[in-house]
Amino acid sequence: MNYVFMTDASCDLTQKQVDEIGVRVLPMEFQIDDKCYLHYPDCRMMKLDEFYKIIREGAYPKTSQINFESFKNYFEQYLKAGKDVLYTGIPTGLSGTFNTCMIAVSELKEKYPDRKIIAIDSTCDSAGLGLLVYLAGKKYAAGADIEEVAAFIEETKSNIGHWFVVNDLEQLKRGGRISAVTATFGKALQIKPLISCDETGKLVNVGKIRGKSNITSTLVKYIKRDGENLKKSTVFIAHADNLEGAKELKKAIRAMCRDVQICDIGPVIGSHVGCGMLALVFQGKRNPQV
Fold it and tell me: Using CA atoms, how far apart are residues 60 and 33, in angstroms rounded to an integer?
């Protein structure tokens, strides 16, 4: 292969999935108590059970963008070796990371005019990005050229449905995303925010689910409404230390889909949503409306 396909650790792919498609994953930084860690798919610096245990004990992790020098160094090692680079990662609707990436790409294109460097704003979040990368990676692993994989990403990215249910209202409160009053009443009434993703990758609060027992049925409703060609498709369920919920959801949708894979929400997203989040992403209409 004369090019490398790259993404970043916000994609929440497992190491097994990464190995299957051969994508390179740029690590992303998170901080706990002023100590910095890099998140990789194999969780080499901090295992996910430890990360979520720390959150449950009251920590409020923070995350950082991939900086200019890191992008430059990650890309340049392959350009120097005579390979082209295709990258898609965390979207502009969620982070300024992609804008930093484009500054590095501009400089590297001047330095390596004979090499192709293609960077695409994924407009997909967390496991939604993971599903996009996984589907594109299947083509990459099968030998498709850089233009074919890039075209597939552009054609597919707006057709990834995203549905997230957030459980940890305390973490949302700490991050300033909801008020203390909302968090208190939400916990008392067992209300869970229902979140989707707009056309830029920005997360939008679209509704509320009352009670844990209604989470699976709500998510099933939206995959039935917006999913397309599910019998021929791969669907991702992602969870933030909520394997029980992920397995229950998989059982509910397994018969309607060709392939359902469970993956973990890592520290990049988990730092902001806390424990218990459940995500369902699939190919179909991106329709962030209840």
Answer: 8
What are the DSSP calls for 154-222, one per residue?
HHHGGGEEEEEE---HHHHHHTTSS-HHHHHHHHHTTEEEEEEE-TTS-EEEEEEEESGGGHHHHHHHH
Please check the confidence at residue 204 and state whether its pLDDT lies above 90: no
Cα–Cα distance for residue pair 108/102, rounded to 1 Å = 10
* 3-state SS, residue 28: strand
Task: Judge contact between 21 and 14, C-beta under 8 A.
Answer: no
CB 235 within 8 A of CB 261: yes
Res 183 pLDDT > 70: no
Token readout for 14 is 């497992």
Model pLDDT for residues 80-95, shown as the tens digit of each residue: 999 999 999 999 988 8
Geometric angle at alpha carbon 201, from 84 and 214, rounded to 5°: 130
Residue 50's SS3 state is: helix
Can you name the residues that pair with 120 across neighbouring β-strands? Answer: 88
**Does the CA dihedral 256-257-262-265 come out positive or negative?**
negative
pLDDT of residue 184: 38
Tell me what the pLDDT averaged over the chain comes to: 91
Angle at 142 (CA atoms; ends 141, 146), nearest 5 degrees: 75
As a whole number of angstroms, the distance between CA 21 and CA 141 comes to: 5
- Contact by Cβ (8 Å): 276, 242: yes
